[in-house]
Design goal:
It is built from ten helices and ten strands. It is of the alpha/beta class. The protein folds into two domains: about 140 residues, Rossmann fold, CATH 3.40.50.2300; about 170 residues, Reverse transcriptase/Diguanylate cyclase domain (Alpha-Beta Plaits), CATH 3.30.70. Strands 2-1-3-4-5 form a five-stranded parallel β-sheet, with helices on both faces. A five-stranded mixed β-sheet has the order 7-8-6-9-10, sandwiched between helices. Strand 3, helix 3 and strand 4 form a beta-alpha-beta unit. Helix 2 packs parallel to helix 3 and helix 7 packs across helix 8.
């Protein structure tokens, strides 16, 4: 008889020594390894410790029968699947139904013949191979879906979070900061006179400018929950959890300083020879009435004020000052 291409480890469970030894001999003659167990409770422990590929399980055993053992094995697998073949002289319709209901996969009538056992084991091997392929395909599909999900939330040009991801993250952080009782800062940023940049330098240069500003924003988001995103066109968003009003203004000044040091040339800005940003900031401890839409409206209103005051600055919606007015040396002692 041809030997199987894959050798299995088979757990044989039978309280009677002679049938157990006959089953063991038949399995070993087919080129498989055997684990023996005479006690139903011990069989469950052997199954958990040794993790066999297949179980041959006698039905009629004292105290705990084979149906009980099958139920214990299925409960222990937690999503896995190990084929269970019942060995029994009982093979009526009701017996088969009870076995399948308990978690078994097939019946082999006693006395066991090597030819029938070989056929059953090969059938189980085919099912195991099919299941392994399905699991492999499922994992490949899961990874592909995860990659698509990630790509669907990233702005293709800048690599920052896109508008969809920003909206989702903002809702999450509102809920999180509400639970934690912590302040949440949201900032909307515009590259000053970006249309004039594109008109003078061209869209290829404009895209490169967006990428450089995006890189700077990404580098300034140092904490795990800080998020920088592109909201559309030349507009960017910063979500800064656990950032109070004063801290947000300090962050904004540092960002403007880093952009100044980057010295990105602007070909046609009335504000500066370099690329500059205007930003609107809003900060609050979210409550039951706080919404993403409300925060965005306040940040947009603050952005409008920053532009009205001369651009190249951030304006705080709550503090009613900008980063020029709020410099430390202007603060009263």
């Amino acid at each position: 008889m041809a030997q199987p291409s894959t050798s299995l480890t088979v757990l044989v469970v039978d309280d009677q020594a002679v049938p157990r030894l006959l089953a063991k001999a038949a399995v070993e003659s087919l080129g498989h390894r055997v684990l023996e167990c005479a006690d139903p409770v011990a069989a469950v422990q052997v199954f958990l410790q040794r993790k066999p590929d297949l179980v041959l399980l006698d039905v009629e055993m004292p105290v705990h029968d084979g149906y009980w053992v099958a139920q214990q094995l299925r409960s222990a697998e937690q999503g896995g699947w190990t084929p269970i073949l019942f060995l029994s002289g009982l093979h009526g319709d009701e017996d088969v139904w009870r076995g399948i209901e308990a978690g078994g996969d097939d019946f082999i009538a006693k006395p066991v013949t090597t030819l029938l056992l070989a056929a059953k084991l090969r059938a189980m091997q085919r099912l195991m191979a099919m299941r392994a392929k399905l699991l492999e395909r499922s994992e490949e599909l899961r990874q592909a879906n995860a990659q698509l999900q990630q790509l669907s939330q990233i702005d293709a040009l800048t690599g920052l979070a896109n508008r969809r991801a920003i909206d989702q993250r903002l809702h999450q952080e509102i809920a999180a900061c509400r639970r934690e009782g912590r302040q949440l800062t949201l900032a909307l940023l515009d590259i000053d006179h970006f249309k004039r940049y594109n008109d003078r330098a061209g869209h290829v240069a404009g895209d490169a400018c967006l990428q450089q500003v995006a890189r700077l924003l990404r580098e300034t988001c140092l904490r795990p929950r800080d998020v920088a995103g592109r909201y559309g066109g030349e507009e960017f968003v910063l979500i800064l959890p656990a950032t109070p009003r004063a801290g947000a203004m300090t962050y904004a000044r540092a960002l403007l300083r880093q952009l100044h040091l980057a010295a990105l040339p602007h070909p046609d800005s009335p504000v500066s020879e370099r690329v500059t940003l205007s930003g609107g900031i809003t900060t609050c401890v979210p409550d039951a009435h706080t919404t993403a839409e409300g925060l965005l409206l306040r940040a947009d209103d603050a952005l409008y004020n920053a532009k009205a005051k001369g651009r190249n600055r951030f304006f705080s919606y709550e503090m009613k000052v900008d980063t020029e007015e709020d410099r430390p040396h202007h603060r009263p002692h």
